[in-house]
Every structure is written in C-alpha cells, then in structure tokens.
Amino acid sequence: MVWSPPKKVVYLSAAATCASLACLMKDYTGGRRYEGSHRIDKKVVIITGSNTGIGKETAFELAKRGAHVVMACRDARKCEVARQDIVLRTKNKYVYCRICDLASQESIIQFAERFKSGTGVTVNAVHPGIVDTEIVRHMSFFNSTLSAIFLKPFIWMFIKSPGQGARTTVYMALEESLKDVSGKYFK
Ligand SMILES: NC(=O)c1ccc[n+]([C@@H]2O[C@H](COP(=O)([O-])OP(=O)(O)OC[C@H]3O[C@@H](n4cnc5c(N)ncnc54)[C@H](OP(=O)(O)O)[C@@H]3O)[C@@H](O)[C@H]2O)c1
C-alpha cells in the first residue's frame, strides 16, 4: 500500500506554494530596486504630490539618504501628516511642507519663485507601472466591495505597491551614471 499524506497537508502545502508564487511574482513585477549606497546629503529635492502614493514613497526614500526634501502639496494638513511620518521613520528632520497647487498657475509661479535655480536641471519622464495608490479614489468600481472581493485578490500580484512604484523615480534620482541624462523616458 502506498503512503499518501493526509488531505489537510496536501491542501495546506498547495496553498503555501500558491502564496509563495504570488509573492515572488509581486516582487518580480515590482521592478529593479536601486541598490547603490549613494547618499544625497543636503541636496534639495522638490517632490510634487508627495503626501501619498508614489510621491510620498519617493520622498521617504530620498529623505532616508540625507536629502533636504521639499514636499510640494496642495493640502497643508495632509502634507504635514505625511511629513511627520517621513521624519519619524527616516530621522531626517530636513523635510518641509510647501503649498503648491498644480491646478493653479498662480500657485505654481508663487512656489517656483522661492526656488529659482540656475543650470544643472535635468528633466526626464518616468513610468512607474501600475501602482496600487489613491489614484483610483474617484473611480467607484475600484473602491467597491465587488472589486475588493473579485478583482483585487487576483490582480494583487501584478500590481506594484507604492514603494515598488517609486523605484523608477528613486533610481533616477540616485543613480550616478544618470546625473547628466536629460530628455529621456524611463520605465
Ligand atoms: N498609480 C499608477 O498606476 C500610475 C501609473 C502611471 C503614472 N502614474 C502617475 O504617477 C503620479 C503619482 O501617482 P500616484 O499613483 O502616486 O497617485 P495618488 O496616490 O493619487 O497621489 C497623487 C498625489 O498628487 C497630489 N495632487 C493631485 N492633484 C494635485 C494638484 N492639483 N496640486 C498638487 N498636488 C496634487 C495628490 O494630493 P491630494 O492627496 O491632496 O489629492 C497626491 O499627493 C501621477 O502623476 C500619476 O499620473 C501613476
């Protein structure tokens, strides 16, 4: 007679294997992380929309590496909550909130006037991939119970976390070999 494991063990192993595969897939789709040790102590970094999502994760990663981070947000209260969280977690007190509403030319000009700089600015476009952030906050389907039960568990492994979504921007900001690269698109 051939020995076969108890059904419970088979089901549990199958579930554990599926969960591990899902985690591996999530990590794989999360993209390459910046693994260098480059620090940007005292470098001033301005991040728009940084009270949540990809912007906040980028602010966190750069503050961790010593940057002086200016969080350019439209909502002072939300910005302050996020700022305190970043300061506490990074132990970098040089993180500031400044109001900038990107829907208002007046607000953008007021903000920019404080930071007029000379040359040395590079501009690149980055695509973060599909990231699980508040970007769907106004899309009722994605915030519904239906989606939470029938959609999210199945697409979870293919969608990046905010930290993973910030990897491209963080990489661009830190990678030495890209410091003079401008006008390119990265994904
Ligand atoms: N998530 C994705 O899958 C994905 C994919 C491709 C590209 N992107 C791009 O990546 C960027 C960040 O997206 P996310 O997913 O992190 O979105 P998110 O979680 O919705 O965060 C957006 C941030 O932008 C701020 N914001 C919105 N309108 C603003 C305005 N008029 N002035 C100043 N700040 C404003 C929001 O502030 P409030 O909290 O005050 O609203 C928030 O801090 C966006 O440009 C998005 O288009 C995202």
Task: Give a description of the structure.
43% of the residues lie in helices and 11% in strands. It has a single domain, classed as 3-Layer(aba) Sandwich (Rossmann fold). It has 8 helices and 5 strands, in the order H-E-H-E-H-E-H-E-H-H-H-H-E. With 187 residues, the chain is mostly helical. Strand 2, helix 3 and strand 3 form a beta-alpha-beta unit. The strands form 2 sheets. A 3-stranded parallel sheet has the order 1-2-3, covered by helices on one side. Helix 2 packs parallel to helix 3. The longest helix is centred in the first third of the chain and has 23 residues. NADP nicotinamide-adenine-dinucleotide phosphate binds next to helix 2.
Overview in brief:
Helices cover 43% and strands 11% of the residues.
Helices and strands, with pairings:
Elements: H1 7-29, E1 44-48, H2 53-64, E2 68-73, H3 76-90, E3 95-99, H4 105-113, E4 125-126, H5 145-150, H6 152-155, H7 162-165, H8 167-174, E5 185-186
Parallel strand pairs: 1-2, 2-3, 4-5
Pfam families: adh_short (PF00106)
GO molecular function, one term: oxidoreductase activity
Protein name: Retinol dehydrogenase 13
Secondary structural class:
mainly alpha
Q: Helices and strands, in N-to-C order?
A: HEHEHEHEHHHHE
Q: Identify every distinct bound molecule in the structure, by name, code or SMILES.
A: NADP nicotinamide-adenine-dinucleotide phosphate
Count the DSSP helices. Answer: 8
Distance between the termini: 56 Å
CATH class: Alpha Beta
Low-pLDDT regions: none
The helical percent reads 40-55%
Q: What percent of residues are in strands?
A: 5-15%
- Main β-sheet description: 3 strands, parallel
When the domains are counted, the total is 1
Question: What's the CATH superfamily, by name?
Answer: NAD(P)-binding Rossmann-like Domain
Radius of gyration: 21 Å
Q: Globular, elongated, flat, extended or rod-shaped: what is the shape?
A: elongated
Mean pLDDT: 93
Please give the CATH architecture. 3-Layer(aba) Sandwich
Number of strands: 5
CATH topology, what is it called? Rossmann fold
For the largest sheet, list the strands in their spatial order.
1-2-3
